[in-house]
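Predict the structure of catechol O-methyltransferase.
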Amino acid sequence: METEQRGMLPTELSLTHRLSAAARCGDFAPELADVLELSPSLRAEAEHSSSGVPPTTPAALLAALGPRIGLEVVSRPTGRLLPYQRELLLLREVLAKAKPGSPARVARVLDAAAEASFSWAKFAGGSKAAALLAAMRGGPPTDTSRSASEPSAGVLEIGTYIGNSALRLAITLPGVRVTTIELDPVLVAIARSLIAFAGLTGFVSVLTGHSKLLLPRLQAHLAATQGYKPRPCFSAVFMDRWGTQYDEDFALIQEHGLLQEDGGVLVADNVLTTAAASFLWRVAAPGSGSSEAFASQIASVTEVADRSKEDWVSVSVSLPNSRSATIAPQPDALARLQAESEKLREIVTSGGSSGDHPDFVQRARATLVHAGIFPMSYEEDTWTEPQASDDQQEDGGEAVVHMGQQQGRQQQQEKEKEEEKRDVEKEEEDVIGY
Ligand SMILES: C[S@@+](CC[C@H](N)C(=O)[O-])C[C@H]1O[C@@H](n2cnc3c(N)ncnc32)[C@H](O)[C@@H]1O
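Done. Here is the predicted structure for catechol O-methyltransferase.
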């Protein structure tokens, strides 16, 4: 796939030109061509905004794009949608109803759209967005927290979609630079327009490409475009794509030192519904060794479009030696869950399923809980002493979850005892070392 670009800007430019030509020929909603053509210049502005290039004003963007993407006909289409028509409709909704240069009004229009007619919106909203923003507020992601050896480059997001969460991060952390990466160049073009309309071009930079290819290049890119030296790292990272893939992104983040050691905040969405088993083992599982590297908590949240659907968001804060901790091999049950979720990802991304898979989520929950990975609210709200009769265990779902909770608790207690013992031994070693 060419979106998995090897060079950054040159490949992106040729790709955008070809995509906008295709849009003009009618392969996509034709209005997309104008959005696509604007995209590279918005990126250039985001990258050079601090070096004298005048940013497109939100009003100028509205004047240029508004008439072309048909603001006068804002309505939900019926019947089959063209590719990207939904996302284009969201952009139209924002351009028609929000105030140029007002990030808060843009966020409100997106909220209203997700609540009302655009229930398919796949961005973090409601309690998910609240968990993300609370975690980011609690962390230290400010550009002023730069140290000489590891200057902070603000916040990194993997998975932009139309730029909703990037917008909210920029609102929540005023003055902090947000770098967000998106594999799909059409979504990138839409996100950049939305960000520019909100007046945030100078703070949010949307990059096109696959995380696997962009993450290793990010430090060099930031150094070249923003003047960061010598190896900037991010104070916070938000991962928002399919959970089985977080492991791969996380390995690159660690390898390239992209997250600040000691106090860096790592937030991952969809960790239950897309079963981020291997990733959670590395950052949040008792007994894995992850507690040497991260202090983690999991929050139970609900989907923006359907409050009856539970998901989990993990929040991890890096400890002083987070890049060098040794992690034990993951249990077979987690490896199997990871493999099952990966198969599901292939089916969903190839259009073979709507993405709604309650049986899988129930199995994922039971397996994760069994491994001692569960949200804070589990113990407080839903813990009931299991009646561990054989009959109940055969009941399936619920009983398995309770057993998992019990074993999870036991594992956690054992782990805490183990850690206490190790701390005492370490103190003794330190004393001996003196
Ligand atoms: C759930 S959406 C992100 C929603 C967004 N963070 C929000 O809440 O507004 C996931 C996005 O990640 C993108 N994506 C998937 N894999 C990616 C990868 N390897 N690198 C960059 N983007 C990726 C998808 O194209 C999709 O737009």
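The beta strands are 155-158, 178-182, 204-208, 236-239, 265-268, 294-302, 310-318.
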